[in-house]
Description:
By secondary structure, this protein is mostly helical. The chain is 78% helix and 1% strand. It has 14 helices and two strands; from the N terminus they run ααααββαααααααααα.
Amino acid sequence: MWPFLFKRLLHLIPLLLGVSLLTFLLMALSPGDYYTALSQNPQISPETLAHLKARFHLGEPWYVQYFYWLKNILHGDFGYSMAYKIPASSLIFERLGNTFLLSFSALILAWGVAIPLGIWAAVKKDSWADRACSLVAFVGLSVPDVLLSLLALWFAAATGWFPVGGAQSPIYDLLSPAQQFWDRAHHLLLPALVLAAADMAGIMRQTRSNLLDTLRAEYVTAARARGLGEGWVIYRHALRNAINPLLTIFGYSLAALLSGAFIVENIMAWPGLGRLTLEAFFAKDSYLVVDSVVLATALLVAGNFIADLLLAWSDPRIRLK
Length: 321
């Protein structure tokens, strides 16, 4: 197991280096930069411009700036956001917490709803319940996250039941701890539902398919022949083996939610890492863009890495290879 883990970790290093280098190159090739915009502002003194140019090596070629950035990253320094006037690390990790909150809420929601519905659809095969679950899964897989986010915004604005954008109310600091909790949950619910929709549909269909295959197995037939009750056969014997293959898609589900969160955040104005990346790009805050993209890539790779671990844990043949 340990050689398998070590090889997978070694693969992360060139991937993150390649992503950071490509992002830095694309930002260098894009027209305009934050320093040029500052230099055109008459309120910014020449001394301040000279200080910024020397501090961030803005007069050097892009690849020299990249190596300075890489050197600082290895020392735990994520640089300085010129657009927000604060260290990039504090800004990134603040937004990263919101992205984690949204993604894990959607993950819990998707799995907590999809597995019971998948079991219900399998047990009630070809009934109205099975057809209703299939319709929900079809809609969840067919409607893109962009369209679903726009429909959710329209619903929130039309009904007033949910806030439109943001992670908390303007009076959040004046609320009691219990009120703060419910305020955050109220802002979180609609984006989490939108993000969980596609994942929920896929897990529900997978659970239904796995359970139906397991219910046809010989050991399930033998359990029924011994006179065991149908509920005992389903939940004690069949369900345990039907859910086990879902472990292998758990990590990929987490990675998909993290990538999908970038779309939902930008459309529904959730202040997460994806929205920060887009804001930094439009502000031409190069270092913040590179930091955000590299960290987002690391999160996606981490999700796939968890999937590989679960697959290797459930299938010893993976470790032997």
